[in-house]
Design brief:
It is built from nine helices and no strands. With about 260 residues, the chain is an all-alpha fold.
Length: about 260
Amino acid sequence: MLRLLAGIGAGVLAALAAVGRVVLFALATLRHMLTPPFYVKEYGQAVINIGYFSLPVVGLTALFTGGALALQIYSGGARFNAEAVVPTIVAIGMVRELGPVLGGLMVAARVASSIAAEIGTMKVTEQIDALVTLSTHPMKYLTVPRVLAATLCVPVLVGVGDIIGIMGGYLVGTSRLGFNSNAYLTNTFDFLEFWDVASGLIKGAVFGFLVALMGCYYGMNSGRGAQGVGRATKAAVVAASVLILASNYILTEVFFSA
C-alpha cells in the first residue's frame, strides 16, 4: 500500500514539476518578447513558415468540414422539420468552434512538430551552444520569433478558414440540399454576430501561442540523438493538441457561459 501511494505521489509531483517548467518557459518567452534585441528576419521567416505554408491544409480542412457540417445538420434537422437552420448553424459552428479548433489542430500537427524537430536537431548538433558562444540568446533568436509569429498568424488562418468553411456549407447547401443562394447567404449573415467571429479569432491567437510554445519547449529540452528528437517531436504535437482542446473549453466557458 505504501509503495502504491508513493508511486502515485511521485507521479503527481513529476506532473506538477513539468507544469511548472512549462509555465516558467512561457513567462520567460513573454519577458523576452518585450526586451531587445529583436530578430526581424527570423520573425519574417517564421511568419512565412507558420502562416503562409499552413494556409492550404487549413483551407482544405475548413472546406470539407463546412460541407460535412451542412449535410449533418440538414439530416438531423429534417427529423424536426428544421432544415432552414442549416445556414445559421454552419456559420456559428464554424466561427465559434470548428474553425478555431480544427485550424489550431492542423497547425499543431504541422508547426509544433516542425519547430520541435528543427530546434531539437539544432540542440543535438550543438548549434544552440554555438549561439551562446556568439552571445546570442537562444530563446530570443529561436523561441520568441516563432511564438510571436504563431500568435499573430493563426487568427488570420482561422479567419480565412471560417470564410472557406462557410463557403463549403454554402456550396453543399445550394448544390445538394436545394437551398436558394440568396436565402442561404441572408440567413448566414443575419444571425452571425460580431462576438461570434471575435471569440474565434481570440481562440486562434491563444492556440497559436500554445502550439509554438510547445514546439519550442520540447525542442529546447529534447534528448540527445535521433530518438531524443523523435520523442520531442511526438510530445510537442500531443501536448499542443491536448492544450488546444482544454483551452478551447475554458475559453468557451468564459465567453459563452452566460
